[in-house]
Amino acid sequence: MSAPQVTVVVPVYNVAAYLDEAVGSVLAQTNTDWELILVDDGATDASGAMCDAWISRDVRIRVIHKENGGLASARNAGLDMARGEWVLFLDGDDKLAPEALQTALAHSEGADVVAFGLARFPESGTGWLDKAYSFGDVREMGGYMEQIWRDGVLSACTKLYRRASICCRFDESLRHAEDLIFNLEYLPHAQGIRFISESLYHYRWNGRENTLGKRFWLDQPEISARAWGLTRRVFAGVPAALTFFDKRYVYEICKHLKKLAQIEAMPERQRLLVMQMYLQEPLLRERCFAETPKTPDDTCLWRLVARGDAAAVCEFLRTAGDGVPGFVWTE
After folding, report:
1. Which of 7, 114, 293, 317 is placed for a possible disulfide with 261 were both Cys, Cβ 3.0 to 4.6 Å?
2. Which domains, ranges and CATH numbers included, belong to the chain?
3. What is the spatial distance between Cα 88 and Cα 108, in angstroms, rounded to a whole number?
């Protein structure tokens, strides 16, 4: 059997309610030269059996059953089995636009990555929310740092990768931010990245961000620092990009400090230890003096940050209003 043009990898874990819709969106592709790898990551619902049922319905579908190892582990298992020239990742509760593969491939000449837009649809399956994260034109990577970050190019699901160019794997030790770290490690080795305007990936919106946004992983400071370091390597020699990501890193620290201060179910000693780790970040302290405070509250916060007083910063941020005080950023 000849190798297919595209391999679609779908990690499967307890998505029985949505799996048929995800698989159906692959079968409905206008480009039919693909293989689909369903990776059953130790699902405890009917998902594993549903994967096996699909094998008999289409010879282009293959299944991996493995012990639960998380999203990164499942994607890596699919990558290891992939035979296609290109690879696309699809989560088991999302779906692709019918023209996704055909459109992305049409813009793939001379590139190792094709980045496309993402649209959200309600869990009920009726109607659409805003078509978020769409790119305006076909563009090269340089000079669009804010768009690269904000429009989701660091997500693994909104891209078509040339398989031969993938020289790394998803970090299986991470519980979150797998996509971010993977892409920052991968991008320096990519020969080119193209952006297209269509929203080809359809993301099931069920309020997950609202829940996840209130969680805080204890390894968040380490991951943030790792991501920032990788951005500096990826965009070395591009001063505008380095300035952008320095600013973004400080913004993320401020956002995480506020989240830490307002999380209720967290021991106070643990909270202050993590906050102190952030307050020791030299770049934060440098920005503390470089930025012009916009309000009296900002002035107060910067003074507390400069002192490195975690308890005082925490108390201040507990009563802060909306937004990220102390730092201005346009999302």
Report:
1. 317
2. 6-208 (3.90.550.10), 213-318 (no CATH)
3. 13
